[in-house]
Batch of 2 targets.
Target 1
Amino acid sequence: MQPAAFGATVVTDRPAEVAAFYQQHFDLQITIDLGWFICVRRGDASWELAITQRGHESVPAAVSAARESSNVFGFIVDDVDKTAAALAEAGIPLETEVVTEVWGQRHFFVRDPEGTWLDVIQLVAPDPAWLAENFPS
């Protein structure tokens, strides 16, 4: 099987609030808004994020019953420091500091209003020693 596209879903009691978070802080646009079901995406990206009302008949009862998210969505941005500063200025608490990893990511973690973990990433050059150790020629 080869999926034609990818999407993830946040199940929440507050679909409009969660959608507004992604609109405001990640420049995603609403493509569908049924109140109980909202889709957001950036431009013509081949992925989308759905936001669905907890308890809706389309959501399995076990999913609606879960209150703590252990999902992590990764968002690649052009300038992670600028994104972190904008979120902090808007009163959104960062869950971690911005750090640079040897494998080529500068990133931090934050949570959306539902508690979904977001790994906000800027791709940077990997450490040459790390590359040599993990990808010998």
Note: The chain is about 25% helix and 35% strand.
Target 2
Amino acid sequence: MSGNSPRTAAPRPGDGLQVHLVKAGRTKIRYPAVLGADDGTRVTVRAPWAGPGVRDFGFVRFEPGDVFTEHYWRDRWYAVKAVHAADGSAKGWYCDITRPAVLDGGVLRVEDLDLDLWVAADGGAVLRLDEDEFAASGLAERDPAAARAAVGALDALERLARDAGAGFGGALGLPHPTP
């Protein structure tokens, strides 16, 4: 016996996996998704709205039947999720500021750093979200380098969204949020 532990086979497009969203060291939510692509840097999955019932933010409603095409990077401090209604119409882009994602076997682990950005599908609304939660998280004191990376990622995404408008996803190398 070689002494090496067995490795879980890497998922392939079409395979199911679990997305684990971690916040402050604890799993905030986990949900099933289907792997769309993994090019070694970016992992793309599709998943239905994983929350219980409707979540109305005022500027968008996430509800049963919504579909998220989620893009995670191993080398970037954010995840970008194209959001579609059950009828296929594009709602927009929800961007989570995160540490770079880790895909290990059938689990995609993402650490949420509280900051978010919403970009409406038509590019008309670009909203920074949860800056108060980020300030209260204590990340700036615990891990100043991570806090700087998080704020830098949010600033960069916001600039890109404002410059690109409805072409936001294309500016990131992603397709426009259409089914």
Note: The chain has four helices and eleven strands.
